[in-house]
Design goal:
single chain, Aspartate Aminotransferase, domain 2, 2 domains, 7-stranded mixed sheet, 3-stranded antiparallel sheet, 13 helices
């Protein structure tokens, strides 16, 4: 039997065909007017998705590189930050800060939970010397989406900066950088931006640039001032990932043509369909509340979660994501992110049903698919 590969993970995500074709074009030199035009077109497209008037800087790195760039450019040794840790990537903020001698006060939550703006306000009142609040928009390890608008209302009234990991969330769920008072926003190419892994994006508010001028942490490749000076010349300070940037430019054309508003609605429809399918099987959602980037579902009693993921990958070639340590085997994650459509959700749910059934879980075949179809049919325009 021919077995096709189905990419259903929260990163990397599927790539549109026209974006894939861009990588096959001949390489052009990065210090030419031709590349500068393409480079600045990409920057303008990123500003549209970030919903900001600030320049968005393109890094040749994964999203973690942009997280590190945020830390080293705004902070100094001995500074104190407030980090919201409710999953793998909230914890990553803390790890990066501690590596640079930053004092970290964590709001530690269970995986799947979110944090109230009142909690942030209370912590800032208790620790008025905090220089930055570090959080995620969408915690990719759980599917939970955070109240960035509420955080922005609180943090904007202090001297602290609001720093947001929007790697999986930007472009899939609303988070207008300027309107919501986000001071540092980061993202990456391999999620809703519909481009292969390898690029990271970062933008700074005017308030953040003031702190950048006083930052004493070591930096070279991720120096925001060097990036700013290069941007004035319509280029990057170091050799850029030229083909990836051309691919991102093409993907941004698709995003702008569709519009952000319609893209947000598309992700909501896919999220609603996925959640309906999962719950129709009697499975429990992990995140409270769940977001529209991915759906995390708890593994039912009597089923080995590690084997479930392995069987889906090896037998059915359906590449959903498992839970990350320290919760490996406890839940699985289906993405509805970026260049995915309704039939991707049907495929994912069908593969989940077949795998669960093979492992002994009692279900009626087609239950989840039918529940998802009802939502998709109502919204298929």
């Amino acid at each position: 039997m021919i077995k096709k590969y189905y990419l259903l993970s929260p990163g990397p995500t599927p790539i549109p065909e026209e974006v894939l074709r861009e990588a096959a074009k001949p390489i052009i030199h990065h210090r030419t007017p031709e590349f500068s035009r393409n480079f600045m077109d990409t920057v303008e497209g990123l500003k549209y998705v970030f919903q900001t008037e600030q320049d968005v800087y393109i890094l040749a790195s994964s999203g973690t590189g942009a997280m590190e760039a945020a830390v080293v450019n705004i902070l100094s040794h001995g500074d104190r930050v407030l980090s919201i840790n409710a999953g793998k990537f909230g914890a990553r903020w803390s790890h990066i800060c501690r590596a640079y001698g930053i004092h970290v006060k964590e709001i530690l939550l269970r995986w799947g939970e979110t944090c109230s703006k009142e909690k942030v306000k209370k912590e800032l009142g208790t620790h008025p010397d905090v220089k930055a609040v570090l959080t995620t928009l969408s915690e990719t390890s759980t599917g939970a989406v955070f109240d960035i608008e509420g955080f922005g209302e609180i943090v904007a009234k202090t001297d602290a900066l609001l720093v947001v990991d929007g790697i999986s969330g930007i472009g899939a769920t609303p988070c207008p950088m300027d309107d919501w008072n986000v001071d540092v926003m980061i993202s990456g190419s391999q999620k809703s931006f519909m481009t292969p892994p390898g690029l990271a994006y970062i933008a700074f508010s005017t308030k953040a640039w003031t702190m950048i001028q006083n930052s004493s942490l070591p930096k070279f490749y991720f120096d925001a001032v060097a990036a700013m000076k290069a941007m004035e010349k319509k280029t990057s300070p170091w050799t850029p990932a030229t083909s990836l940037i051309l691919q991102q430019r093409k993907a941004l054309e698709r995003i702008r043509k569709l519009t952000l508003e319609k893209l947000f609605e598309h992700h909501k429809i896919l999220g609603d369909a996925t959640r309906a399918g999962i719950q129709a099987l009697g499975l429990e959602l992990l995140a409270k509340p769940p977001g529209n980037i991915l759906t995390a579902a708890k593994i039912p009693d009597g089923i080995d979660g590690v084997i479930l993921i392995r069987l889906m990958h090896e037998k059915y070639r359906a590449y959903i994501a498992g839970a990350q340590a320290p919760h490996k085997g406890e839940f699985f994650r289906i993405a509805h992110l970026g260049y995915m459509g309704g039939f991707d959700i049907i495929t994912a749910l069908s593969a989940v049903e077949m795998t669960l059934s093979e492992l002994g879980y009692d279900l009626e075949a087609g239950t989840s698919v039918s529940a998802a179809q009802n939502i998709l049919k109502e919204n298929w325009t």
